[in-house]
Amino acid sequence: MPDLISYLQFVLAPQMLNGLALGVSVILVALGLTIIFGLLDVINMSHGEFYAVGAFGALALSALGFNYWVLIALVPILMIPIGVLTERFLIRRVYDGGDRHVSTLLLTFGLGMIAEDLLKIVFGPNTHRPENPLPGAMEVLGVFIPTYRLFLIAIGAVVIVAVALVVYRTRLGAMVRAAAFDRNMAASLGVRVGWVYSGAFAFGVALAGLAGVLLAPIYSVFPTMGHDFILMAFTVVIVGGMGSIWGAVIAGVLLTQVQAISSLVISPVWADPIVFGVMVLVLMFRPQGIFGRIGHA
Amino acid sequence: MTDIMHVEGLCIAFGGLKAVDGVSFTAERNKITTVIGPNGAGKTTLFNLISGALKPSGGRVIIKGKDVTGKGPAALQEAGLARSFQITNLFFEMTVRENLRLAAQRLEPVRQALLPLRRHGRAADKVTALIERFGFAEKAHEIVAALSHGEQRRLEIAMCLASEPQVLMLDEPTQGMSHGDTEDTAQLIRSLTDEVTILLIEHDIGLVMSLSDHVVVMHQGRKLAEGIPAEVRADSAVQAAYFGHG
Amino acid sequence: MHDRLDISMRANHVFFGILVIVALVFAAFACFSGDVFYLRLATEALILGGLALSIDILLGFTGLLSLGQALYFGIGAYVSALVLREEPSFWLAMGAAGVSVLLAGIAGGLIANRVRGVYFALITFGMAQVVAKVVYNSRELGASDGLIGIPVIEIPLGLITLSADDPLGFFLLTLVIIALLYSMSAYLLGTPFGRIIIALKANEKRVPYLGYSTWAARMAAYVLAAVIAGLAGALYPMLRGFVSPELLFFATSGDALIMVIVGGAGTLAGAIWGAVILTMLKSVIGSWTEHHLIVIGLIFMSAILFMPKGIVGMLKPFVERNLLRNSARQPKPEPERTAL
Fold first, then answer.
1. DSSP assignment, residue A125?
2. ipTM of the shown complex
């Protein structure tokens, strides 16, 4: 019996909390993806690169002397105009073509390639590790957890709840949901649909950038960091249901917990195949995910 | 047997709404049976149930003595059924000829599917014949999207005939057509009864009266009345449904 | 029966024919100048062209975007490599690769064809990533280094015997094989079976009412594409002497997809042209700068924004008009044919 408790206290709980820290970041990225898909009906294959840009942005700005705490707000804000420009000048051009899903997927895929190479040019191909602003560990209910991860969970949760509240409880959110549901109707009711779309896309990539800033001190920063992360994010979005915010949250927590706990018993190299396996299974048997509506695809 | 298609107690519900509630009727061989009813009566849903687009929750569909209830459209095609659509559902980016060829290639044996289509086989001849008969000679190589609405509706019917069905289901074939086109289409439909049994959905009462051998009236998912056109017209329940509070 | 789709396919043949002629001229030059590097590069371009061809069959004709075709390319390559290490026989390697991707394609198709559209794209992506990671972590398959030391093989072709080491000979052999894969695809797409595939892209909802199962048609197209990708992949270890997990990763699928878009989706020939153009570009750009991804990415995005039909797609109407004029000039016995 005491062995079980020590196992829980010293192995399982910390692992689950670490998984939660990762999960919160994955949810932030996945939220961006699902909002962009739910609102604009666009598959953003460059989303991982926006995540990387956030991390690199934090790196660059902190070298300029900005304090880490400022960066958490500053980097996402700086990413908003990038998002608006991307939506306005690239995505909107192919939006009304025949195969919107295919052309936006391909277009953003190309964009991602360019972004990745740009990062390599500007920052070099090497891995960077920014300083952890909250080193050390704290004890919570007898469990030791790195302070920074605790902070990560807290702030991530706050942002996620804020996003949900804005989308579901504010007038702004209502306008956005109206525009997603029926574009023409919303326009005729006076909603500035063009701005809503740009804003939603910018908001989505800002969330990804925020995740990049938050995770930079824990995971390293390198130009291809977007790739692996985006696969996890896509899986969360699919399992949770494309376009569903609660789906992204629940699936994000579930999947990262599955990954965290399973890496206790099996080699971590199998973690990715398992996650993809889950995605494939969900796509086979319940393609709309937990909360999604299949009408959207 | 003079009846070629027999529908018994077909039902389907969407959520709490019984879209089709226990409808039964018989379509007699080489006759035109028309289904009419006010909007929302369930006519197209009934067609969907018979043609395999929807699976009924109860009831049976029997064609040529075979029970085909709940089978998909491909199996129903096999059973000798062909169906046209209320909202034109052609291959818009292809030409008239290509559309007809797709519909007609069913006539060739499946084992020849990996061989080039025979220049003078059953399918090729059928396409030529249909182009002739439906007046598409000038427009055979036009993209369907460029055709007029009336021409597209005509092509819908031609596509159905390509597979040489025994039962032809036409869902509002004259929808959106001009008066002249409607007349021509009515004549065309009448001329088809030698080869096929026709089940029709129509809104144009004049057409219904002049074309139909048998009329089935639907209202709120149920069969309200049936009989020859004159009988149905005189039926007070039918009148109430159309002109009364229905 | 000559309808517009037949003319369209014939226009594709014109472009493919031009490619073959260019290839032969290039081969002649290379032969005279004693070149080895460019011949091998061109051979690699053709092999990737096979992968691109398989993507085009799905995207340009069936209307399915597969983001994981490299899976079958890689399986073909690995199986071929494994066979060649034991028994350096060309025919055995090709045969084994063909059978393996046939089975893999059926398995993959059963999984992927349960969904369509975006979900299909993501599931094919996921499948390729999973297998790629498994291969990457498998020591039996050489892990991240892959399988090296593939022997140079002798290829008996009846009258002559080629060595895989002979750049000119192997180039010509690859050209022949790719031409065969192209011809087979073009032929099948012109049959009733092929027309149903094309109908899937045009209006999938109507296809069951023609009397066909859409699932069966999609499976057939998918397996066909898988086999083509696999046979092309089987040539890879013969050329390079090794295989590595990179062949299965998304970068390979993505590159091939770019080849199809730039060359022209739905033209078959465009896929091969795209492969040649992209490989050439990569080589040229690679000699100036390490950052070829930006250039490729820009070209790709420009293609989607400004030239969505691709190079062959844009040039085809001119060829089609000529072909139509030629066929209209000849007297035809069918009475319903009108001059266009």
1. S
2. 0.87
Give partners of C (≥3 CB pairs < 8 A).
Answer: A, B
Rounded Cα gap, residues B45 and C188, in angstroms: 38
Instruction: Put the strands of the sheet holding B3-14 in their side by side order.
Output: B17-28, B3-14, B58-63, B66-67
Q: Give per-residue pLDDT as tens, C77-103.
A: 999 999 999 988 899 999 999 999 999
Give C137-184 pLDDT, tens digit per residue. Answer: 888 888 888 888 888 888 888 778 888 888 898 999 999 999 999 999
Report the chain C residue with the minimal C-alpha distance to residue A104: C304
pLDDT for residue C335: 46
Chain A interface, mutation test: which of C115, C137, C141, C301, most A Cβ atoms within 10 Å? C301
Neighbouring CB atoms inside 10 A of B200's CB total: 27
CB A176 within 8 A of CB A202: no
C191 and B114: CB-CB below 8 Å?
A: yes
Question: Would you call A90 and C118 a contact, using CB atoms and an 8 Å cutoff?
Answer: no
**Mean pLDDT of the region C275-279:** 95
- What is the percent of chain B with per-residue pLDDT over 70, rounded to a whole number? 97
Domains defined along chain B, listed by start = 1-80+166-246 (3.40.50.300), 88-164 (no CATH)
* Secondary structure class of A148 (helix, strand, coil): helix
B78, B88 Cβ separation under 8 angstroms: no
Between CA C211 and CA B84 the distance in angstroms is 13
Name the least confident of A29-33, B120-124, C208-212.
B120-124
Which one of A99, A280, A294 makes the best mutation probe of the C interface by having the most chain C beta carbons within 10 Å?
A: A280
For residue B23, what are the β-bridge partners? B10
List residues of C whose CB lies inside 8 A of any A CB: 59, 65, 111, 114-119, 121-123, 126-127, 129-130, 133-134, 137, 250, 254, 257-258, 261, 291, 293-294, 296-298, 300-301, 304-305, 308
Q: Pick the more confident residue, C144 or C255.
A: C255
Residues 6+ apart with CB under 8 A from C190: B116, C5, C6, C9
The mean per-residue pLDDT over the stretch B144-167 comes to 91
Q: A297: which chain C residues are within 8 Å (Cβ-Cβ)?
A: 116-119
Question: How many H helices and E strands in chain B?
Answer: 9, 10
**Ranges under pLDDT 70 in chain A:** 1-2, 97-98, 180, 183, 292-297
